[in-house]
């Protein structure tokens, strides 16, 4: 099958008292694609809260990049394909890709009890003798909480306060403390039977990868993904000086990534240039690692989950592969979708839910 693909990635820090005006851009407006991007990007930027957008497109074997607005309030510098963003829970797809390597290479099995890889005794990580398995970590059916320790009260605060509170709490939170807190986690249903989104589960998946390969998560990311794909600007880290500034809707600067503890769940930073390469790699369904990462472990009425990738089948048989992410003041949307419904779903900027801080959309059309 001939593949056509499109990948836009949007950086949208929110501005204070911005006014609708002519938007700075490097779009040359010479091709139909240029004009399509211009129409959607300018319409999106008319919201006075938005500061800048970076768009990366891979189509018919070529990559294209467009930039709008500015990188920072009060400046006139366009973002570029090398501007660094937090990609939030899109990170989970990287962890899933690494798990696919471990699965295909015989390092793990999806039905392995995770306690096989944990130091210490965790009788709490089961329900009625049904254990949490690696597979249930990847499809968020393990029953583990979203955060350790429980942060439900924190999330009742205004979002700005949540970002600051979590940043302050986790800045000195250690892996040792994480596993001490894991002893207090409670599983309320048979793993694999219900959906419960969990950053905790993804962190454990990352730790399992480190144990079976005897390498750090950052080293595994480099060895199996970023180095082979020449994604030279994709990193795991916190408070990078190159990371673009994030604002709330009032123009207040918000904290950057607050911890490396949950790096496998949401700690990767990347660029449009690098993510085009990553998404191009994931078009290769003949690649055994890509195929494994897209293979559904849960399938319910057209919705499925592979190794963190979400899969949806429409009534007409059209399939999408996608993942979303919200990182306090960031939002990310990523999907593959077949060409025949491209026009009705192209550039879903207006469908973002309360976009705050950095807002990304990654989309492939094939």
Explain this structure.
- The longest helix is centred in the middle third of the chain and has 15 residues.
- The strands form four sheets. This protein has a six-stranded mixed β-sheet, with no helix packed on it. A three-stranded antiparallel β-sheet has the order 3-7-6. The chain has a two-stranded antiparallel ribbon with strand order 1-2.
- The N terminus is likely disordered.
- It has eleven helices and 13 strands.
- The radius of gyration is 20 Å and the shape is globular.
- The protein has 366 residues and is of the alpha+beta class.
Give a count of the beta strands, DSSP E runs of length 2 or more.
13
Specify the overall morphology: globular
Rg of Cα set: 20 Å
Q: Could you tell me the mean pLDDT?
A: 81
The span between the termini is 9 Å
Order of helices and strands: HEEEHEEHHHHHEHEHHEEEEEHE
Largest sheet: 6 strands, mixed
Number of helical segments with 4 or more residues: 11
Low-pLDDT residue intervals, each spanning 5 or more residues: 1-20, 336-358
Multimerization state: single chain
Helix content: 25-40%
SS class: alpha+beta
Strand order of the largest sheet: 8-9-10-11-12-13
What fraction of the residues are assigned to beta strands by DSSP? 15-25%
């Amino acid at each position: 099958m001939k593949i056509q693909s499109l990948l836009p990635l949007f950086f949208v820090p929110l501005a204070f008292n911005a006014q609708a005006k002519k938007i700075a851009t490097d779009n040359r407006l010479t091709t139909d694609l240029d004009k399509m991007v211009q129409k959607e990007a300018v319409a999106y930027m008319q919201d006075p809260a938005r500061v800048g957008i970076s768009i990366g497109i891979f189509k018919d074997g070529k990559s294209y990049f467009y930039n709008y607005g500015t990188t920072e309030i009060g400046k006139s510098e366009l973002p570029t394909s090398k501007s660094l963003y937090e990609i939030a829970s899109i990170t989970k797809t990287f962890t899933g890709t690494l798990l696919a390597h471990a699965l295909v290479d015989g390092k793990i099995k999806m039905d392995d009890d995770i306690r096989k890889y944990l130091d210490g005794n965790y009788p709490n990580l089961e329900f009625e003798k049904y254990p949490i398995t690696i597979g249930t970590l990847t499809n968020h059916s393990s029953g583990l909480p979203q955060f350790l320790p429980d942060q439900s009260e924190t999330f009742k605060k205004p979002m700005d306060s949540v970002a600051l509170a979590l940043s302050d709490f986790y800045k000195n939170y250690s892996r040792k403390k994480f596993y001490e807190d894991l002893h207090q986690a409670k599983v309320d249903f048979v793993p694999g039977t219900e959906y419960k989104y969990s950053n905790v589960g993804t962190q454990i998946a990352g730790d399992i990868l480190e144990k079976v390969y005897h390498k750090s998560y950052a080293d595994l990311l480099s060895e199996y993904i970023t180095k082979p794909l020449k994604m030279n600007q994709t990193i795991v880290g916190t408070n990078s000086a190159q990371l673009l500034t994030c604002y709330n809707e009032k123009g207040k600067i918000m904290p950057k990534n607050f911890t490396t503890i949950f790096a496998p769940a949401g700690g990767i930073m990347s660029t449009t240039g690098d993510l085009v390469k990553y998404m191009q790699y994931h078009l290769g369904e003949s690649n055994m690692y890509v195929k494994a990462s897209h293979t559904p472990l849960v399938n319910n009425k057209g919705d499925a989950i592979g190794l963190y990738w979400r899969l949806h089948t429409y009534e007409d048989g059209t399939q999408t592969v996608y993942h979303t992410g919200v990182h306090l003041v960031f939002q990310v949307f990523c999907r593959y979708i077949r060409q025949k419904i491209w026009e009705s779903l192209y550039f879903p900027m207006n469908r973002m839910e309360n976009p705050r801080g950095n807002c990304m959309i990654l989309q492939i059309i094939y």
